[in-house]
Write a structure and sequence with these properties.
Elements lengths: L2 H11 L1 H5 L8 H18 L3 H13 L6 H8 L21 H10 L3 H10 L1 H10 L3 H9 L10 H17 L2 H7 L3 H12 L3 H4 L5 E6 L6 H13 L4 E8 L2 H13 L7 E3 L15 E4 L11 H8 L18 H9 L11 E7 L1 H4 L6 H11 L3 E6 L12 E7 L9 E6 L5 E7 L2 E4 L2 H12 L1 H6 L9 E5 L4 E8 L3 E5 L2 H9 L1 H4 L4 H9 L5 E2 L2 H7 L8 H11 E3 L4 E2 L15 E6 L4 H9 L7 E2 L5 E4 L3 H4 L9 H23 L1
Parallel strand pairs: 1-2, 1-4, 2-3, 4-5, 6-8
Antiparallel strand pairs: 5-7, 6-7, 8-11, 9-10, 12-17, 12-18, 12-19, 13-14, 13-15, 13-16
GO molecular function, one term: site-specific DNA-methyltransferase (adenine-specific) activity
GO biological process, one term: DNA restriction-modification system
EC number: 2.1.1.72
């Protein structure tokens, strides 16, 4: 931002001085942002205002109902205002500024009014009026010259973003929900677009960018700026959707002030109210809220998932308390087909989507679908304490359906956790930041990842690894061991029989227990032998007979192996175990090598084998650090003891 723009931003910020006392700092934006939008729109509309009013009167007199297309054309913009008032003359009657301001706002075209409604500005008009501040604040904004001749659309976008950034920083409790640190966005955009640098300079290119959780639109703006810096003649269309009304209003305002098409910013839930149904995009990026619950739209999403890949969620559904993978599937559904040029996308996740969910779970099946379709290009680990409202570790996932030939069937992991500097002043949970060198270094490392991974001499070799897509898959096998039993009737086993539920419902249970007591001390090492000894109990109904066998059977490592009618050994549920076998390895070879040397009678229950996928990022970059020598620790303890003795001696003097 230039010095002039900074002065302009500071001037608008000075309005906060008027609000101090009646508004909390975190509430300043509720007044300043919509008034900045209103003032800019007023300036932008001024050259055609008279023509629009004249045309409006003509259409009104002619009884035309749908004036919107004509008035937009007359204004030469995507919006207009049919109020006789403008920003200056609404102050003419000092006692009725609130009424005039509402009348002026009511004259805007529907899309613009919708933006102001989402700001909830009407409530602020009332609040300012009751505090006696409305006239002063509006007067302040009348002084600002925001004519397009003085402040271009591009400059206005920067100015507005500067205000949004400041207000977000002082609203730490909610900032992270809609405001991603600028340097994080810059790195994300670099990683998304860097492989396409040559393509982006092609004359006359048209590219569509989309963010399904666009917040204030920071990612869309950065991506647009990045491409336009490479190619001033590129046509960039940005699309977004946002659930929060206020941030939606900010994003849409930003588009209006930059001269973009605000209608491409949709309001609502991207899962249940897809604002861009049927659209396909070249690039997508998002920082969806971490761990967002999707219970409110559960029925809608499950109904769509039931359509399989004809819908957006055919790969699987994550657990109800984390919709991260729903955002990712939503974005994948909006990829262009490879034959139409394909797409690339980047999304910010916490660590959960890397490994949450066992084999066969929704999360694992989604990872499996992504990897088996070779869409995951790379994952970049970021430093912790990088975001405003959380200090947890975060990751960029980068996906594409048009991988470069050398990257096909491969996934790059880049460890960027050590690339940070400490901030001079913390902002909420944000205590670290990336500088320009970090962004450049990580971008280059990602672009050159394969060469770095194969070059042990490269200084970043330890930070980059490449894997086959199948390396993240595993077979979840169920290892069984035979059920071994001996049989005996004792006081303890009789007590178990007496408490068995089937026996409580058996009419002759007392007779049965009485007869069983006479057999106390009976024991057998085999089932057939014990069955003969139980003949005294007579013919029993199936539930009671089962209860008898359950009570009198004792687990014994040296006992008889129990079998089914076909002679196959029965498994002991208490000894059941699970093992994860690499996808590329034969499970029987694994059993022979890893299990049978310790438990020779084990076997795999093959129908229970499941395929799972997980990405244990930190495990791949773990570096073993040997513990300190005991002698060193011993010396340290002795030194501490000596110091404590010395201090105690000082106290007792």
């Amino acid at each position: 931002m230039s010095t002039d723009h900074q002065k302009l931003a500071n001037f608008i910020w000075s309005v906060a001085d008027l609000l101090r006392g009646d508004y909390k700092q975190s509430e300043y934006g509720r007044v300043i942002l919509p008034l900045t939008v209103l003032r800019r729109l007023d300036w932008v509309l001024e050259p055609t205002k008279d023509a629009v009013l004249a045309r409006y009167e003509q259409l009104k007199a002619a009884g035309v109902q749908n004036m919107d297309p004509v008035l937009r054309k007359t204004a030469g913009l995507t919006f207009y205002n049919t109020s006789q008032l403008n920003f200056r003359n609404l102050l003419a009657d000092q006692d009725h500024v609130a009424t005039n301001l509402r009348s002026y706002i009511g004259g805007f075209s529907p899309g613009a009014v919708d933006v102001l409604d989402k700001y909830g500005f009407d409530a602020q008009i009332t609040r300012l009026d009751e505090a006696g501040l409305l006239y002063q604040v509006v007067s302040k904004f009348v002084e600002i010259d925001l004519r397009p001749d003085v402040v271009s659309n591009h400059q206005m976008g920067y100015l507005f973003e500067e205000l949004v950034r400041k207000f977000s920083e002082i609203s730490n409790e909610t900032a992270g929900e809609h405001f991603t640190p600028r340097e994080v966005i810059k790195l994300m955009v670099n990683l998304l677009l860097a492989p396409d640098e040559r393509d982006l300079v092609t004359p006359g290119i048209v590219r569509k960018i989309y963010d399904p959780a666009c917040g204030t639109g920071g990612m869309l703006s950065e991506a647009q700026d990045h491409i336009e810096k490479h190619n001033a003649h590129a046509t960039i269309e940005v699309y977004g959707q946002e659930l929060n009304g206020e941030t939606y209003a900010i994003c849409r305002s930003d588009m209006m002030m930059k001269g973009g098409d605000p209608n491409k910013i949709a309001y609502g839930n991207s899962f249940s109210q897809d604002g861009h149904d049927g659209e396909r995009f070249d690039y997508m990026l998002a920082n969806p809220p971490f761990g967002v619950e999707w219970k409110k739209v559960e029925k809608f999403i499950k109904d769509e998932a039931a359509r399989g890949h004809a819908g957006r969620f055919g790969a699987g559904l994550p657990r109800i308390n984390d919709g991260s993978f729903l955002f990712l599937q939503h974005m994948i559904s909006k990829m262009k087909r490879p034959e139409d040029g394909g797409s690339r996308l980047a999304i910010v996740f916490n660590g959960s989507p890397l490994f949450t969910g066992a084999a066969g779970s929704g999360e694992s099946e989604i990872r499996r679908w992504i990897l088996e379709n070779d869409m995951l290009e790379g994952i970049v680990a970021l430093p912790d304490q990088l975001f405003y409202n959380t200090g947890i570790s975060t990751y960029f996932w980068i996906l594409t359906n048009r991988k470069a030939p050398e990257r096909r069937k491969k996934v790059v992991l880049l460890d960027g956790r050590d690339y940070w500097v400490k901030m001079r002043k913390s902002l909420g949970d944000k205590r670290k930041m990336l500088n320009a060198d970090h962004i450049a270094s990580l971008t280059k490392a990602y672009v050159d990842a394969l060469a770095i991974a194969e070059g042990p001499a490269h200084e970043q070799h330890g930070k980059v690894k490449d894997f086959r897509t199948t390396d993240f898959g595993y077979q979840r096998i169920t290892v069984e061991r035979p059920l071994r039993l001996r049989f005996e009737i004792t006081e303890e086993t009789l007590a178990l029989l007496a408490e068995a539920k089937p026996l409580l419902r058996y009419a002759d249970s007392e007779a049965l227990l009485s007869t069983a007591k006479t057999l106390t001390g009976t024991a057998a090492s085999t089932r057939s032998e014990f069955a003969m000894k139980l003949a005294a109990l007579g013919k029993l109904p199936a539930p009671a007979e089962k209860a008898v066998w359950d009570a009198f059977s004792i687990s014994d490592p040296e006992g008889e192996i129990q079998t089914d009618r076909k002679g196959n050994p029965l498994p002991d549920a208490d000894l059941r175990d699970n093992e994860n076998v690499p996808l590329n390895e034969d499970i029987h070879d694994y059993l022979k090598r890893e299990v049978l040397p310790h438990v020779p009678d084990a076997w795999i229950d093959e129908p229970k084998t499941k395929i799972g996928f997980e990405i244990p990022f930190t495990r791949h970059f773990y570096v073993y650090e040997p513990p300190r020598p005991l002698s060193e620790i011993d010396t340290e303890i002795k030194d501490l003891e000596a110091k404590i003795q010395h201090l105690l001696g000082e106290v007792t003097k």
